[in-house]
Specification:
single chain, 4 domains, five-stranded mixed beta sheet, rod-shaped, GldM_Ig-like-2
Length: 515
């Protein structure tokens, strides 16, 4: 049949067959071209969504950089530059698309006339001169080839290594193996030479999608690195938080151990401690205030941060216990625990680490005095008195103690003439004008004895009882008969203590020798 002469009918059949095959091929081509158009529209729609997502992420980063410049300021500065690069490349590709499709405007629904974009002339004429790359083609190739490098130079270590490798692979421009040609072809030839225009436009739109995805991945990666660092156990340290900052011997030490994180880049807007503003530092704040009175005290306040345009306050709550500052040693003579009957013996009663308002003491004759822990003990009958003390610890538990004191009477005073005791020598005239007194030298209390009666006895003469504290007329008459060397004995000296309702013992005698 191939070598024979065809009949007119056979020629007609063959021609109709060829036309039929051509029509099938034409219909298939239209379907493929339409498919490229649909794909391009979907990618453009996806790009718009990515743009919105990128803008939202950037606004979040921008706000965080405003709230915490130390923590996010550097990242925001890098993202600014990266976004500028991505926009430059996206606009560059958009310019190419605009140039090659100016003869094929979109319809009202935003679709290209795909079936008319079946030739490659527009892009071939732009990227090639004959079969060689044109200046525009070389520019396009260098743009794509240098994109990943520019991002790496800006982002540095802020872009994870695995992410950078993905970006470099996404924008790789190495030669590509073609099965049809059974050889490696230059990247530009493999992707853009002799392709229908609608296919090339779709590929350029996909390239824009890669740029936008790269921008999104970088921003997400920067946030993710912060989250990973924050979640890493190496960012935490155990912090011991005792129930209080002072404990008594024998008391259970209670508290908790929590995991805390110190971030040197996190600076509070303000820090308030016990109503006073203190300087905020990187990740911390130092405070200083007076310890206050003995007892338990609270520490309250807040760490205040800016977050998304609002102030977020983190409460501060703690406590501490003030104990008395040691100013002297506690030294006591075990055999000298003595109080004197009839006197307001001053006492200081306290419990270390417990405020005075939570301490109470009791004993017969014990009364509060002015000042914290000050008491007066005025014992009555008996030979001993027990002082009991109770207090309430910061945790509410009671504690008690007691001590026994011996009760002693005030010692007997010494008789004195003009303040002198024992044997005194002088003229008769001096004795006649001197005052008889009673003194108690080297006693703990400064007592003022007032003599109310004494016995006056001149050697060889009857004793004379005198009411008062001075020699009377009878005593003067007896003195007239006294000679030089005679001794006058003043004895049975009775007195009272000024301001006290007790009767002292009789004072010891005093001897006056006439000179």
């Amino acid at each position: 049949m191939a070598g024979g002469k065809l009949t007119p009918r056979q020629k007609m059949i063959n021609l109709m067959y060829l036309v039929f095959i051509a029509m099938l091929a034409l219909n298939m081509s239209k379907e493929v071209l339409s498919a490229f158009g649909i794909l391009n529209t979907k990618i453009e729609s996806s790009n718009s969504i990515t743009d919105n997502r990128n803008e939202s992420s950037f606004l979040q980063l921008q706000q965080k950089a405003k709230d915490q410049p130390l923590q996010y300021g550097d990242k925001k500065a890098k993202v600014d530059k990266i976004r500028a690069i991505c926009k430059e490349y996206n606009d560059y590709i958009e310019g190419i698309k605009t140039e090659v499709t100016k003869k094929f405007p979109k319809d009202k629904e935003g679709n290209y006339p795909c079936e008319q974009m079946d030739k490659s002339d527009e892009i071939d004429n732009m990227f090639y001169t004959g079969d060689k790359e044109s200046a525009k083609g070389k520019e396009f190739l260098e743009k794509i080839r240098g994109f990943a490098g520019k991002l790496k130079a800006i982002g540095g270590s802020s872009i994870a290594e695995v992410e950078m490798k993905k970006i470099e692979k996404r924008f790789a421009t190495e030669d590509v193996y073609s099965e049809k040609a059974e050889a490696k072809l230059p990247w530009l030839d493999y992707n853009y030479h002799h392709f229908p225009l609608i296919a090339t436009v779709t590929k350029l739109t996909q390239l824009q999608a890669d740029i936008k995805s790269t921008e999104s991945d970088i921003m997400e990666g920067m946030f993710k690195s912060d989250l990973v660092a924050a979640a890493s156990l190496t960012a935490y340290q155990p912090i011991v938080v005792p129930e209080k900052t002072a404990f008594f011997q024998g008391e259970a030490v209670k508290g908790k151990i929590i995991l805390g994180k110190f971030d040197p880049n996190l600076v509070a807007k303000s820090v308030i401690v016990n109503g006073v503003s203190v300087p905020a530092k990187a990740g911390q704040a130092d405070f200083s205030f007076g310890a206050g009175a003995v007892g338990e005290h609270e520490i309250t306040g807040s760490f205040n941060f800016d977050e998304n345009g609002k102030v977020v306050s983190l409460p501060i709550k703690g406590n501490y216990v003030v104990v008395p500052q040691p100013k002297s040693a506690n030294i006591s003579a075990d055999k000298m625990n003595v109080v004197y009957r009839g006197l307001p013996n001053p006492m200081t009663i306290s419990f270390a680490g417990i405020s005075d308002d939570k301490v109470s003491a009791s004993a017969p004759g014990l009364a509060r005095a002015t000042g914290n822990g000050k008491y007066n003990l005025n014992p009555g009958s008996g030979t001993e008195v027990k002082v009991s003390v109770t207090a309430k610890l910061p945790d509410g538990k009671p504690v008690s103690d007691s001590k026994i004191f011996r009760i002693k009477n005030i010692p007997a005073p010494l008789g004195a003439i003009a303040g002198s005791t024992g044997v005194i020598k002088g003229a008769k005239s001096r004795l006649q004008v001197s005052q008889v007194t009673a003194v108690l030298p080297d006693f703990l209390y400064d007592l003022n004895f007032e003599v109310v009666q004494f016995t006056f006895k001149v050697q060889g003469q009857p004793a004379i009882v005198v009411n008062g504290n001075r020699v009377d007329a009878k005593c003067a008459a007896a003195l007239v008969r006294a000679s030089k060397g005679d001794q006058i004995t003043i004895s049975d000296i009775k007195s009272k203590i000024a301001g006290q309702g007790i009767k002292p013992q009789t004072a010891s005698p005093v001897i006056y020798e006439i000179q």
